[in-house]
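> tool_call: predict_assembly(chains=four)
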Amino acid sequence: MYTLANPGAGQKSVELMRALVYHGPGKKSVDEHAMPKISSPSDAIVKMVKTTICGTDLHILKGDVATCEPGRILGHEGIGIVHEVGSAVAAFKTGDRVLVSCISACGTCEYCRRGIYSHCTTGGWILGNEIDGTQAEYVRTPHADTSLYKIPAGVDAEALVMLSDIFPTSFECGVLNGKVQPGNTVAIVGSGPIGLAALLTAQFYSPARIIMIDSDANRLAVAKKLGATDTIDNTDGKAAEKLMKLTDGRGVDTAIEAVGVPATFVLCEDIVAPGGMIANIGVHGEKVDLHLERLWSQNIAITTRLVDTAATPMLLRTVVSGKVDPKQLITHHFTFEHIMDAYETFGNAARTKALKVIIEF
Amino acid sequence: MYTLANPGAGQKSVELMRALVYHGPGKKSVDEHAMPKISSPSDAIVKMVKTTICGTDLHILKGDVATCEPGRILGHEGIGIVHEVGSAVAAFKTGDRVLVSCISACGTCEYCRRGIYSHCTTGGWILGNEIDGTQAEYVRTPHADTSLYKIPAGVDAEALVMLSDIFPTSFECGVLNGKVQPGNTVAIVGSGPIGLAALLTAQFYSPARIIMIDSDANRLAVAKKLGATDTIDNTDGKAAEKLMKLTDGRGVDTAIEAVGVPATFVLCEDIVAPGGMIANIGVHGEKVDLHLERLWSQNIAITTRLVDTAATPMLLRTVVSGKVDPKQLITHHFTFEHIMDAYETFGNAARTKALKVIIEF
Amino acid sequence: MYTLANPGAGQKSVELMRALVYHGPGKKSVDEHAMPKISSPSDAIVKMVKTTICGTDLHILKGDVATCEPGRILGHEGIGIVHEVGSAVAAFKTGDRVLVSCISACGTCEYCRRGIYSHCTTGGWILGNEIDGTQAEYVRTPHADTSLYKIPAGVDAEALVMLSDIFPTSFECGVLNGKVQPGNTVAIVGSGPIGLAALLTAQFYSPARIIMIDSDANRLAVAKKLGATDTIDNTDGKAAEKLMKLTDGRGVDTAIEAVGVPATFVLCEDIVAPGGMIANIGVHGEKVDLHLERLWSQNIAITTRLVDTAATPMLLRTVVSGKVDPKQLITHHFTFEHIMDAYETFGNAARTKALKVIIEF
Amino acid sequence: MYTLANPGAGQKSVELMRALVYHGPGKKSVDEHAMPKISSPSDAIVKMVKTTICGTDLHILKGDVATCEPGRILGHEGIGIVHEVGSAVAAFKTGDRVLVSCISACGTCEYCRRGIYSHCTTGGWILGNEIDGTQAEYVRTPHADTSLYKIPAGVDAEALVMLSDIFPTSFECGVLNGKVQPGNTVAIVGSGPIGLAALLTAQFYSPARIIMIDSDANRLAVAKKLGATDTIDNTDGKAAEKLMKLTDGRGVDTAIEAVGVPATFVLCEDIVAPGGMIANIGVHGEKVDLHLERLWSQNIAITTRLVDTAATPMLLRTVVSGKVDPKQLITHHFTFEHIMDAYETFGNAARTKALKVIIEF
């Protein structure tokens, strides 16, 4: 934060900060931008310490997210320090070290009362989408009491950047919705950051097998290191066939879709056992074929979910107690000065082998 | 049952009975057929008293059910009297009045132990499909201990014919899977016998609204009489629009699909509220479009299920205690002599206004 | 509300109202009391329209509730009109007709996020206990957004007084915790207002039998009228024996304790079937014997719960849709001038046959 | 098995075997005993390979188990080889290597259909109790299809002796009923074999903390080795106080009772947090005090359960996949010739440090 030097006559002094701003499809830049201000009693202003880039930011930059308009500061993840709080904020005060949730939740509307924070009538996924986000020196976080989390003492704060979005997303949409159980067989289709976070958090429930499916040999190798019992290279498109062989023709109890294209969803349909679950995490851009002519009698369930971050407190406890180490997904570090490089690296993951990149202020 | 008169030289005396036999697409006849015999210690032979015709029987007659081969006696519903039991049958004896479940379940395989009787490795829906069925004077019922139910004293037995298939199907696949709850809003797409049975059993959970959708004015009128709070005539294909108006743009907590064609499934996708359920009952012959480009973020679940009849004991208690009267779905009665007429009547429901037809032996 | 006439020199004008104030064990009076004021941005001030008396108020007056100190305005139930709101209240504005919940919930603490509003770290049951309550012309309601409910148009508002406490208490602690299911057998021990509210809301789930147990013939007669399938008079202390006879020695799937003394809890232990539930609603003043020497192997669950009012939105919908009529529990009406008579009537229920009494401002 | 040499005139040849027989309180001996025979079509005869001794066997020997009469062969655990099967046994044949479940379940009665195998109307815990058990060269196992489990290839069979009783008991009654969840805090009261099996299987769900409480320093040291995050020595009776300090006054989400005396159950009452679970595993010989005067408002649940062994297939998969190693509980080995020594060792566990002892035929 800094004050515009030498404001012209009649100009008010304006506090400025640096921010990564979306300027329409294909266009982004680091700009000087006005500082955010408290606009509701339940707001907080957080000084960002570390942030990251999400696959969704890339979607926005392609112009795929209609709700995000040019001029928007991107980013919905990160950790920081509370800079200022509104009069109704009870749980936080200036100086608190906090995790910023990607979901803003009022805690009181019909959906919030049901734990469906993602559909909060005055919140949901708005950060870096409908309001300015976290890829900036400061961010305004609405509904601060239900949308920030104190960083526990003694924990490696950088790891918690993974708890803004990717870990709750993979855990809630994939693992919880997929009802992963001890002794069960799980397939995760897609071994990118989201699939790998599902792999890590699925292990909370001790399934007998976790079979990772992808076409990128490097990512499958990472998956093996992070706990996959089996990997299937789908370069030849024969993953379903291979998986059925691996499972003696039985299929899987839980198929987690972590890509977001029709072919990977249909693959889940092909490998789910009777009585099983298909848990979709992927952000889909088009409809998919649902083969009800076969599945109507298979006693399966298919779930979709925008992350609610309702599980964030639970995830925090698993990190603090060492049950999982989210830092395993972090491959690159940049300072904010080099955020354009960070985008370049993250956006070319096949080549750079990037999973999650950290951007430090 | 009767014995073939004057068997030729060298012929054994053969006990015969009358049965409705499938002879390939479009062909059926009432034939003289050999009596069934106990072939496993857990079998029972049941003398049928009343049976009925299911929409699935019509599917078989169209040639749509590959597992059902010509020569098969049709039917998987009905009540009867135990005629003979195998040496391992513990719960039933000759003379017991019983309900025949459409699902045969061993009770011991992996699927049965999980309550997924429909996928019993030596059972499931086999009656009138892979083995001879109930549209005959006698039927062999495998796994009798887990597949027959004693008819309680004092209950109108005819009503229980509805508990062989249609009531557990609508209740398990529609109401239970759809998680109908007190105060919730439910839509049932399809007001045929299956949809109406869902309407009746959904009321066990006191939803605030049950909105029936169909294009047949008579069936909607029946629905209104049986407890629908609202009906929507979809003749103009604008059911989704009308429903959203009825619910102030909110949609429904539970959408039950009770038809089995792509358009009605997509209608369910169009009307389900965030956090809601789509419970499929319909038997589908082709794939459907799943609009994940919109639904991926809607926190919904879609379920499919072949009826398990796991809820049959619960349903029996609701009938005995007068919580529901399944006879409301019975519109016509025939003697077995006129079973071809029964098929004619049931197969032309739009004209005859038939819901379920009873065939008495 | 009115202003103190002729304040002495140097006195500020003080706004006063009438209120029922607790003055220590056995003592209460209608006093002039200072008007409540907004003290936190999330507070509202509600002008009361109707309130009622709870059994817990009688407990306080006996000196049994240590948290309630002399000088406290009693009452935690009622309907009113929003008079003023704090700056952070988003869901309500002056003039809104509202239901006041007996539980104040911040919506954001660990317990509130889990739906355990009763243990809200800055709320819970505080109204008419740790802070002034609703038996007054005005009341301050903390955490207004999560603790008030708009009164829907077209509904009889008086009925909703039952939704402040007694209905959610009986439904959540008794019916939901007791897992009442279609076709099941339920016993409710205690046919006072709480037991009767459990009887009414248990019917949302269509149990086959609801057996009410009490020693008051009048209350059992009311129970019969409100839907009990069986009643047992326990004047002779032989209720367990009678119930086992009624259920052919099987016992009940759900036993709801709605009295709060050792004998009635042990009765629940005596009648619960293997696999069954004991759901405690009663406020207990002493320990009870838990017969684990018999129950350890019976696969039962025992639940306790201070009402969370998490189910209040659901209950509102059941009332609006006519699934239940809470007014059936209202036996007497008083104006606030006669609140001492109201206490007299409610406190002598065996003689007056009072269930719930309404007090109107 | 062997034939009685030189039967006297008129005597039939009798096949005999060795067995550990209960002869009334305090009395047991290794006797020659007639071989078991198939008595129902669903029976199997299993030649035992390894068995073990359960705390319940010691209870029987004290005369505490009324259903077990003098003359009974003890034992309800072990692995063996199928020797003979009844005509209705479908899943097993002579020569199959099997695990014998402590619970016999018909799979078809009301309780079995609900997964409550422990209350099977013709089974339950009958082995070594109401019928002869597994501490013999041969045992008859009723309802073989639902009560035996094939030993998977490649698994160390001895480990599976722990899956007859102690693992499903601790897992079902303690871990599943206790709803152990990722990130939660669990206390296990009692660090004997049952408590330690609960400790091992609780880790399937990745709780943040598992606090073991006992008065035996050796057993606490074992607990630490097997995964306890904290141990509390309760020799001074101050475990509750210590635990509350360890948890910053919060208490535990799940308290598992694995002893079976009043003091340890009350300890669970003292340490459970609001919203928490008390899961009883202990076999209790007397009633306990339930402090409802405090707990009525704490939103807790208390569960009891006789093991159903419904989770045995799941547990088998966790062992096969290496998620848990049950052999960690085996401390001693004996041949059947020395079974009296095995009892001596197991019965003096404080001195011998015995957990589970294996007896080999």
